[in-house]
Amino acid sequence: MSGIALVLLALAVSDLSHGLEGTPRSRVAALRGAAIGTLVAGVIGGFVLDDGAMVVSVVAVALVVAGAWQTSRVGGATPQVDLSLLGLSAVALVGVGTWWEAEGTDADLSDRLDAVLPFVDGFSDDAKLLLLAVALLQVSTANAIVRSGLAVLIDGDPPSTRIRGGRIIGPLERLMIVGFVVAGSPTTAALVVTAKSLLRYPELKAHDDGDGALDIHAVTEYVLIGSLLSWSFALAGALLLVD
To answer: How confident is the model at residue 35 (pLDDT cuts 50, 70, 90)?
Structure first.
């Protein structure tokens, strides 16, 4: 599980290097982001994993996954290709995960994590790494995945709207959902979803000018599908952390 967590961490960091959108502006930026993510995974892997061969394997897989994901979005690939590539990467990680069984971790590093983050004291060392990776994935990578999902599900161009807060609201609500579910309070996570839905409705209505300039129904559908995709990603991440 440590190896999988480190590869996911490389993916998350590579997207974070491009900001909240997680989209590289050029092939050079894409390769740079993949290199940064892989470097972070390699450094942490060197501290956490006792097996040098395992660290090399993790770095190699992380470079392939992060590099393919990054470059696909600047090479003219369609959103369908992006999502298919991500899905294949997930399947590959599950497959090779059986070969990554770290027998030990750096005890000093584990103790430092417990001191800085007391709420993870009951987590195993593998779970701590996975928690870090899942949290970072919610910040930037999830935005990119939701955007690709919307491009696949919505016919034509997205509706014109001045509502741009989703790039910030999305990561925050996903982090809250993951945190509440992991903390054993899924009901509170449901309240976050409900509150977001109630608050969005008057915001959408306020943009309905009644002159046909803005198709409020199209915007509502767009926001709803985007929200459902976002919540699903957060829930998937939380389920990885729940025993």
So the answer is: very high
Q: What is the pLDDT of residues 89-104, one digit of tens each?
A: 766 666 655 555 544 4
pTM of the model: 0.77
CA distance 45 to 109: 11
For residue 73, give the nearest of 24, 110, 36, 38 by alpha carbon: 24
Range of the domain at 198: 166-241
The answer to the question of residue 58 being in a domain is yes
Contact 57, 2 (CB under 8 A): no
Cα dihedral 240, 39, 169, 184, rounded to 10, equals 30
Q: Is the CB of residue 4 less than 8 Å from the CB of residue 93?
A: yes
- The answer to whether the CB of 36 falls within 8 A of the CB of 12 is no
Instruction: Tell me how far CA of residue 50 lies from CA of 42, 59, 94, 128, in angstroms.
Output: 13, 14, 21, 17
**Same domain, residue pair 107 and 28:** yes
Q: In whole angstroms, what separates CA 21 from the centre of its chain?
A: 11
Tell me if 25 sits within 8 A of 84, measured CB to CB: no
